[in-house]
Amino acid sequence: MGSRRSFLRSWSSPLSLFVVVVALAASSADGFKAPRVPCYFIFGDSLYDSGNNNNLNTSVKVNYSPYGIDFPAGPTGRFSNGRTAADIIGETLGFKDFIPPFASNPDDRQILVGVNYASGSAGILVESGKQGRMYELGARKVALAGISNIGCTPSLIATVGTNGAPCVTSVNQLVAPFNIGLKSLISQLKSAHPDAKFGYLDTIRAGILASQVFAAFKVKTTPCCQVSTVTGLCLPNTVPCSQRRSYLFWDAFHPTELANRLGAPILFPVIQRIL
């Protein structure tokens, strides 16, 4: 168990981070159907990255085919065949346009609507997780997502093995302490800032082991695309599976757009409660 614990701590899994969805206090708009919140800010890792790594000196970027094969703009840097969960939540909130990545240098108008700061392989650091600072900047509606069942990714299943179980149980068990700590943090934030609203997004209940998500796919542990044995990402310019709606995973780490579409609505009731 000790070796797997250290493996989990050091492994830069794209499922081992959390996203913070931030909206400021809502105001109504007259004359047109406005989004349910005036702005939407996204923080996290490759599950939510929409292109912030494209110009960085890193191997963790996917602005190439076959990524984005089902996305309107093609390979934008999203780690999926199509929309991410953050995209789908944005659509559900009523935003007509996708929230732009910070790396795209959004103009003043776009910044007032929202920015996506998520970056593939981002780490959990004190300086990147100061919720109090967000509050000082005006955040009043914040949803934080726990760690998902990372032991169910094709990469970990292939690397560690499951001993006949659907996933790597020992790795999934290591997720629980972090999520318990995150829930405690949210309770502290609620007490410290009673004029704001904070919610916990249970990504395990809405994730790849959720019955309505897991059962929807015929292929659950094999990536849709051909992946690199080093990075677990799709090999550039290769042809992915044609039956993408049958696959839970796009590459060795990240879900397909359909998996995101099935999982995001399970999270949305929590977001509704903080609107």
TrEMBL record:
Top-level taxon in the UniProt lineage: Eukaryota
Family per record: Belongs to the 'GDSL' lipolytic enzyme family.
Keywords: Hydrolase, Lipid degradation, Lipid metabolism, Secreted, Signal
Coiled coil feature spans: none
Signal peptide as annotated in the record: 1-31
Keyword Nucleotide-binding tagged: no
A GO term, aspect molecular function: hydrolase activity, acting on ester bonds
Membrane spanning stretches: none
GO process terms (BP): lipid catabolic process
Native organism: Linum tenue
Cellular compartments per GO CC: extracellular region
Main location as per UniProt: secreted
Pfam families: Lipase_GDSL
Protein name as catalogued: GDSL esterase/lipase
Location in the cell: Secreted
